[in-house]
Amino acid sequence: MAAIRTKDHLDGLKGITPPYEFSLERIQVVASIREWCEEHGVEPPEAPRIAKVVRNRNTGKYLILVAETVDSENVEAIKSKIRDEGLEDHVAQLITDEDLLKHSILHEIYYGVNDMLGHAITERQCDQWAFEQMGIRSPGK
């Protein structure tokens, strides 16, 4: 599998909107999410990430960082993490690179919405919600 170049999919990703109010400032492609976080005083992710939501301290709006390139090792690590959450049937339905990118953006939107509302949320809940927004459900449901 070749690396995913997110800029090739950016137009489709910018069209993703949640079904309710969410203060999204923009989707920003960055060379490294970890480095961006370190440079901006934001807690960097512990594991490989395709995307990460951060809140702009000045505007209160949210920014979704998207890694410029996602190599095949990171794709597999992310899919493995989701499988470990018990969502293996869902992961099998992420067929294209754009499917994986959309899932990641939706995951971050749901995290941001819950942050905005002051609700604690798990990674599994974010993943599950993202799959639901994409119309991906467990077989037989």
User: Into which percent range does the helicity of residues fall?
Assistant: 40-55%
| Ends distance | 30 Å
Oligomer: single chain
Mean pLDDT: 88
Q: In what range is the share of β-strand residues? A: 15-25%
Q: Numbering strands along the chain, what is their spatial order in the largest sheet?
A: 2-4-3
Major sheet details = 3 strands, mixed
Molecular shape: globular
Overall SS class = alpha+beta
**Low-confidence parts:** none
Descriptive key words:
single chain, 141 residues, alpha+beta, 3-stranded mixed sheet, two-stranded antiparallel ribbon, 6 helices, 16% strand, globular
Structure, explained:
The protein is 43% helix and 16% strand. It has 141 residues and is α+β, with helices and mostly antiparallel strands. The protein has one domain (4-133). The strands form 2 sheets. Strands 2-4-3 form a 3-stranded mixed sheet, with helices on one face. A hairpin with a 6-residue loop joins strand 3 and strand 4 (62-67). It is globular, with a radius of gyration of 14 Å.
SSE order and pairing:
Elements (H helix, E strand, L loop, with lengths): L3 E2 L4 H5 L9 E7 L2 H7 L11 E5 L6 E6 L1 E2 L1 H13 L3 H4 L5 H21 L5 H11 L8
Parallel strand pairs: 2-4
Antiparallel strand pairs: 1-5, 3-4
Helix pairs in contact: 5-6
Describe the structure concisely:
The chain has six helices and five strands, in the order βαβαβββαααα. With 141 residues, it is an alpha+beta fold.
